[in-house]
Amino acid sequence: MISFNRKTLFSLGIGLLFSAVTLYFTFESIPLKELGAYLRKINYWWIIPSLLFALLSYAIRVWRWQVILLPVKRAGFMSAFHPLVIGFMLNCVMPGRVGEIARPAIFYKRENVEFSKVLGTAAMERIIDAICLLVFFIYILATITIDDTVSVTFGRYVLTPATLHKLFMFTLEFSAVLIALILLISFSKTRKFINRLILRAPDLLFFTTTHARDAIRERICVKITHFVENLSVGFDILKSPGYLILVLVQSFLLWWLLGVSVWALALGCPGIEITILQAFAVEIIICFAIMLPSVPGYWGLWEAGGVFGLALFGIPATEAAGMVLTYHFFHLVPVIIIGLVSAVLIGIKLTQPVRNGREALLLEEEEGCREKNARFTGAGMNKR
Prior knowledge:
Blueprint: H1 6-27, H2 32-41, H3 47-69, H4 77-93, H5 99-111, H6 115-143, E1 152-154, E2 157-159, H7 161-186, H8 188-200, H9 210-233, H10 241-266, H11 276-289, H12 301-311, H13 317-346, H14 352-383
Antiparallel strand pairs: 1-2
Helix pairs in contact: 2-13, 3-4, 3-6, 3-10, 4-5, 4-13, 5-6, 5-14, 6-7, 6-9, 6-10, 6-11, 8-9, 9-14, 10-11, 11-12, 12-13
């Protein structure tokens, strides 16, 4: 069973409150009476194919994670499925995007694999997603005409093509830094060099005693190097060109399916006529919009991004808001339900994954210290 303690209920309550506020900011300039009338006109049968395409994209996510996990552990479909969908569910209902930590924590607990290794695979997946979004956005800019005068106000944010460009550049720069760090950690020579620098860092504290520097080295630096070593295993997919190409193909396919999902729902929305490519552009713009600080489930920013994206193609605000709100609700609720069912099936408490992650890191730190100290002791004995 899933248990809800006071802390969890408080977090959920805060999340719901902020969701309500952000939705208010999104729809404050849209007449609610007209929005309600438009929602009654939507042909909701089109939700079925739209949802099927979205669920298929989740199946491909699971398959992709299985491939990325190969250097860490060969996992079955359901072994990867449960942690992934529970992680997405937690992102929808809890603040702070705790689902990103929950997924590797659940996999660690169930599969007895070191947490930081699995965390590396999750980080690798996010980097690949960012690369796909950047590539698709460049393609969209090259093939679709965007009205530079369009803007959508959301609270303190004003979404314009210039805002979109800033988010694109931020994602590009952030991804470049992460890719550089991943490459440095992935190759043994550079990783060993980094670890040596970390272990020697306490020597910079020349004004302290030798005992103090050694204590810092043992309690902090050794733990960091152990974490780096484990994290690098999660990036080992980079060393297998065949698997890396497969992961990239899977990534482009799942994002394309999400674009088709938007297009399928648009077919049931009166007054919204967009091509598959334009629908795909709307999906990409939503993804960039929810990169801004947001509440659980991305309520508000998701709608603002979608309204802005559809406005770029001449769709009026009321029709755009109706479609995006429908798309968000009917795609979010199934993820929450599936995630909750998965949690029940494998016996995971709602607050347990993050606690498991903290416990896993502490355990790894202790094991890493013991291993490092054993090596240092062995080296000292050999010298004697």
